[in-house]
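Hi P.,

Sorry for the delay on this. The queue was packed all week, but I finally got your sequence through. Input first:
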Amino acid sequence: MHLGLQACLLPLPPKLGNANFAQIINQVMGGLSNMALWLQIPLTSPSEPAVPSTGSNPADSAKEANSGSSKPAVANGHQPPQGSATHSPTGASLDSWAWWNQVRCMCAHQGQLGVALTLGAAVPSHSALQRWFGEPVRAIVVPTSIFQTNKRGFPALPKAHQAVLVSFFQLNVQVLLSDTERLLSMPEDLTSDSAFPSLSEASQRQPAASTSSSRDQQQQQQQQQHPLKPYWEYLSFLFRRQPEATPDQMLELSYRDYLQAPLQPLQDNLESATYETFEKDTTKYTVYQRAIHAALLDCTPQEGTEDIVVMVVGAGRGPLVTASLKAAHEAGRRVKVWAVEKNLNAIIHIQHLVVSHGWEDMVTIVAADMRHWEAPQQADILVSELLGSFGDNELSPECLDGAQKFLRQGGISIPQSYTSFLQPITTAKLWNDVKAYEDTEHYETPFVAKLHRFTPLADPQPVFTFSHPNTAQPIDNSRYCQLTFESTGESAICHGFAGYFDAVLYKQIHLSILPSTHTPNMASWFPIYFPIQQPVQIAASQDLAMGIWRCAANHKVWYEWCVTQPQCSAIHNPNGRSYFVGL
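Then the structure:
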């Protein structure tokens, strides 16, 4: 440990269910402070035959795997564990994820325990590979034996293996070469660190130009170079070939898998920097402008006036005021805009915005809480941006129910409705971050997070829907929903639930963070993560069911949730003891 090693790579035990192995690891991790332990796991799928990643030719290994032999497959010298493999006419197959999962569970999901996946001659299906995206994969081990020789005589990987590496590059894993004994002995003068910079350093280097006149010289140099250098250069080439990150992706980098407490804009006054961050998302306001434009075209002024009355409630620093006036100009409509905002600091910005653009005759600023303000006239269009990552989690229903009293009969609310969605996920990173707090409160708190290292275990399902104006009598925004997610046919572990929303602003104009309908280039909202205190083991044939409640009292709103199948969990956050949104 005094050497400052990042991690120690450990082979798997020869048998699954070896409790002594897990017990020894537990003891060792108890004495470690900065060093991690990585289990070297063969990357195989339960639905595909395991192929030995030895020094044999990949083509020969593939033939052997498909030869119909009844001998059990061996992956990296490990026999398939009892009960974790499914047998087929083509031979035995190994669910290496089950191997890892058992060791991880016996070690109490310790964050110091990671995975180093070993590529073999066969590559699992995308669904089997995706199971690892939510796990603590720290490295990919690439045996030199699975490389092929290209037309120029250099080592190269098949396209399927290239795709696997690129997908894990995006998760910031390291790449380790193994099975190097078969290569030539390494000369002593080629062991310097400068011969092998990191992949990120290599990506900044320009490859040397190759001409016909220099090929002989290059071949001579190749005979003198380190025998692993061609492999390193090829991996560097794959790393450089990744698509460049977009500006939005660069902006999101620091938020990936980072837990953030949801905002409470009704209870707290947001800081100017928070408003500024939201206002950088021009996509959101462009979509809002389209919705307001469509509503204005469908709207006629009230009797006795030529102006259409637009009320922006929760106006913030005024971006929706600007969007409303731009939409009115495009639609050729005269408007009277009311900007209602309770945050006095934000009011100063709106005042400056109005004066600097000369909108004093069109915009009236009101410093008040929309729920208690008495409007001097009825609105034709009510515009708000009160949505949270789960749709209703920033109290949009309560706010708009209070504000709808000054929307005229038949008036238009933007948004018209919004629906929340949930899906179970594997996310060892976020769950361990919650676990690190060592208290119940954080397990019972929904967090906003830009999900990156996670695996969805089922498609999202709708949870709660709210419509505006709300014509229910009496109005009750409490809700309960029971969801059942069907088995995907593969065993898995659930660390909690990811939440999204889809909002109908007006007619066919939507804002969404639901993965299947996500509004392009919009970054105002990240998903919300509902953790569970104990990860749930899901067998290949088992469904997962959960219940979620939206509860309301006079002074607060909160969520409660639990798993009901295949195992029952405790109900999280009863009576809002750990987390609530203040009214």
